[in-house]
């Protein structure tokens, strides 16, 4: 006998002991053994273990029984199929036992076994076999009408099994359906509810035919005679089927909706509740199919959301405005009203939830919701039932969130617009703004009610409103302040309530101008300060966050004297003392420590000139927190904030030591700390260079070369930005490290990964380096280092071929150097032109290398930046001769034209007309000009370009036509007010073919991104309004859809 079998035998022997403790310990040890992956049982041991555990299910001790059930879970995967079937047979037999305890423990055992049955393909045979045994016996158990408890247990197990293993029960789906349907008419409500739950689990995996049978059965039963108690069950079942079946219900909605609508007219509150729950399920699962019925459902919801036959609101409406908030009589009269038999609140709640589902799924109807649903919800803020009122607040918050989704997208679209451009407001936001006075009027009274749940709902709703329409509550802040102060000072207020009030107050401060709060500072500050001293850390943390914003309100950044003559001095001492107490404490929560550091940092940044002698003590504490591993990141960010303060805070007392500590952070593996440290050093060098000695920067400079690496482009970008600041503020300090830093920067320049912000940072650094006049870092030396790889064998520093992208990067760098050294530019240009010509002739004779592409970019970028005028004919000649680099040459010609528009553009337009064979390349140059040239510079030439493009819109070459269309689209955005109507006229006249479709596509993608294009100016994409129907083929529309999608993604 093996050691495992011997050990198991000993445990099984102890399980037969008369001592319950022996049995318990032996069963516990067996469970631990079975949980080990390495255990392997022989056939005899399997049989003995299964027999013993099934015997222990009948043990007199409940703890032993529970342990035996727990042992079944790991045992399923350790024994063979016959033993699992034995377990299932015994458990199913015990389920029908007369002993209630054995029946309950066996049900638990069956659920445990079902939860452990394998879902993988290797175990499907076992799963199918076990499910077959269980299902057949459960169907029999459900038929026992005389024993309800057996029915309930069988339905519970069946629900679990269908929820997890419905796919393995496909062959039983039909029999299960016909066994479950009769249970819907059971006299016991618990049986009906569990049957509905089981049917819900059956729906997702059943066949379409079976699903149709179920739906038709429900329809047939609902159509029978007058409503009965079973009608509620069928409506409930319908809602559950819809939630689980999803879109499959859609094809039956035309029959279902009228029937459910009819039942809402029955005088039965519970039935009405279930009807609205069914509507909610239909709306969430089948929004498209529900479109024809949205108006009907909305009207029903609006009607029944006010359904309260036992209570009259009219008496209080007229007196609501004049009613004092602290008048206890009226509040008591509301509280005294009670009717246990009144179920109308369930109807109101379900109708409001249905409206919320409608709002969340149909954002396309948002404007109509503001006309119909919004006013109705506002009137229900007075709802007497607390739970229903919370649902009203939730529904209105959903409306606000839907509005914010649209306005945030609109804000992102408009983010690229000029500061002086008038932005078009989202229509839904405009409608919401009109409702703000009414919202505040209805809510401000409830903010001082005793009901905590109502106040929390008010604060959550107001927080959504402030986030959706920043600044909308500015005029109403005096009305909101009493409610905020009440929630913060009321002794009966819970901690959650205070946190919600502080959260709203913080959002309010962030989203509204400081001058709106300054007159109320005397009232607002004391309760917030009291919350900072609260013993609960979450309240303290939120209060410090609010205090930080109040400091900003006292004196906004950049203003030495606040508007309106507000003087922050009377409040500084109070705020400083309470924040300093938290800042000094070391035995507090980590979150409070960080918030205290940040809050005090804002005090120093905004009010540092009012702190006097206390300032140096605060800076010393910041230095200590900087050395602490737990608080160092927050301290770094705080010092960054203080460094950039307009008050020019004197940091000389901590600078030398702080720089040394910050330098050590650059070696750490924590990326966030590294980035924060680089930003802090940049701020210190930029704003406090006079206080920094060159020796103090040495710990920082020694760490920078290792950070300039293509492995992390963002860290490299921030590091190069710091080097740029040093080159401008402390040029002498760079001389020592240029030999170690520059090689890394040049490697980045030649890397194929360099682009975007990192490239711009390097351009700025090279320019700053040239302007700093540092020895051995002049223009010629930098230019030589940049271009050296192209004049040597074509390999990069690591032995690989230089990537094509590096030509573009080096070209930008050479152009940046030339713009910083105008005197050196002519000689550089002359040399590059010579290289271009040499490469061209070599190419013409058959010798070609990729260096020519880079030289073209060098040449044209320099011309673009330094406005050196060359001969356009020469450039066109180059573009013609270079067969393999013609596209690069054409784009470069466009870049050159941007630098000297009056000289190059007329010639370019002339060549497009005169050279049909080179037209495609020259149009690329024109597209570059339209894309890169400012609208003000391009405006005088718009008419000539417009005429030229329409002359070539019927070109035989498809590529040329598409390019013309793209140019037309880009050109239209230069002056949309004038050009867009003309373009629409051309499209309606049918003067454009394929290129018209591309142009429409381009404009439809870009119209929303242009601040000067209104919503009404967008070109329609439908064939009957934009292009001749005969030319609009399905294939073309699919292509345009693809173009639109790609453009948006990019």
From TrEMBL:
PROSITE patterns found in the cross-reference section: HEAT_REPEAT
Annotated protein name in UniProt: Cullin-associated NEDD8-dissociated protein 1-like
Domain Maestro/Maestro-like HEAT-repeats, first and last residues per copy: 91-222
PANTHER family with a match to the protein in the record: TIP120
Alphabetized UniProt keyword annotations: Repeat, Ubl conjugation pathway
Superkingdom, natural source: Eukaryota
UniProt lineage: Eukaryota, Metazoa, Chordata, Craniata, Vertebrata
Species per Swiss-Prot/TrEMBL record: Stegastes partitus (bicolor damselfish)
The keyword rRNA-binding is assigned to this record: no
One GO term of the biological process aspect: SCF complex assembly
